[in-house]
Design goal:
The chain is α+β, with helices and mostly antiparallel strands. It has a 4-stranded antiparallel sheet with strand order 1-2-4-3. A hairpin with a 2-residue loop joins strand 3 and strand 4. The radius of gyration is 13 Å and the shape is globular. The mean pLDDT is about 90.
Length: about 110
């Protein structure tokens, strides 16, 4: 898979900015994700390092990503000393989620 293979055609982020966003996701996967699971085909759960910095970094990233790929539904949860990010997509976007998961697993 190429570095940007999971970027959907529907993404409105300017092409020149996509490598930077992909690097942000790569950094999150490599530095903050402690485990990954797929509770449903249309959902990906990322357990993250519990810290205010990770929460702020993740919130900023998903806010920006929601602007260009509005089909993603992100839920960032802080509870009981844990931090988790759930990424959900509509059924027609499951291949994008599959590729995002593959990219993440390659970096964790």
């Amino acid at each position: 898979m190429t570095h940007d293979a999971w970027v959907p055609a529907a993404c409105t982020l300017p092409i020149a900015e996509r490598p930077l966003r992909l690097d942000e996701f790569g950094g999150l996967f490599g530095e903050a994700v402690t485990s990954m699971s797929r509770p449903q085909a249309d959902r990906l759960r990322l357990d993250l390092v519990f810290s205010p910095e990770t929460a702020a970094r993740t919130a900023g990233l998903i806010t920006r990503e929601s602007r260009c790929c509005s089909f993603f539904a992100f839920t960032l949860t802080v509870a009981g000393g844990s931090l988790a990010l759930e990424v959900a997509v509509p059924p027609e976007r499951i291949p994008v989620l599959d590729a995002l998961e593959e990219s993440g697993r390659a970096r964790t």
